[in-house]
Predict the structure.
Amino acid sequence: MSRTVSVVFLLAMSLMVGACVVLVIWELKKPYKGYPGPDKFVDINRGDSTRMIAYRLQGHGVISSAPLFYLYLLTQKSRVIKAGEYRFAKLTSMVEVAEKLYRGEIFFHKVTIPEGLVFQDAKQIFLQQGFGPEEEFDQAFGDVQTIRDLDSHAQDLEGYLFPETYLLGRGTSPQSILDQMVKNFRQRFDASHLRRASEMGMTVRQVVTLASLIEKETAADQERFLVSSVYHNRLKRGMLLECDPTVIYAARLVQRWDGVINRSDLGLDSPYNTYKYPGLPPGPIANPGMRALDAALHPAQSRYIYFVSENDDHHVFSESLGTHVRAVARYQREKLAGANRRR
């Protein structure tokens, strides 16, 4: 072969290789969407091989070529793909998909736990969102090591699971979820709250318990401090708190709650029944938010010792039994009238 032919051959080969490289780069950077619908969720598990990841993404229509994507990942030896659930929702190139995996742009599910729920109800929200299993939630609920320094009498985490909107990656364990909720409580209930509790002669458990009663009694921010004053005034006088939510909690504990407080429930022999036993119940009856916790520590200055609902989010507060009885009678009349209008 002459020198001229060799040069031409080498030039041709170089052009072919160059063309192939250009085609590969073009294919890697070409936007692609091969799945129906607006988005696609793909799980990348710990221990998955690079090949498994490539073919899973192709199977879900996220990339067009598993072999090419696999070869590209092999060139990124120093980088690590983060495990988790990923959401793809637009035309995306293989290079962009790889960057998403390397950056660990995991999809986080937004789970909102409202103020005032008991653990069992909060647990159901997590289960409905696909987190679990249930047995692990129950086991984590009974692990009180994370609050032992705050509450040496705690037998579970009731009261310390802070209500909030949580961003959770798919596969987050129940233990990790409850740990986050407790951590949130500890961050919110800070040194200033601990000092205030000490000044009032209250333990953290007493504060959280009182806050849980306040939380269950009213959703109106401006009333929480008045409700708190009623309970503080009753405690000082040695009066029964007569808090309906404690009766409901007691009935739920023995699985006899039917949605209505019956006369027999008021006599239920439970330390949580504040119609029967004086003082605060032995522990929280719900998981209070920050406003209820603040109200427990900063009650309004009042002489109120009674309150009754106005059939909405507000209450009528009274200093005397006579005034309270009239308010209760008005509440009952309005409740009856409302029932008649709905017929």
Observations:
- Residues 109-188 form one domain.
- The chain has three domains: 28-106, 109-188, 191-304.
- Residues 108 and 169 are 5 Å apart (CA to CA).
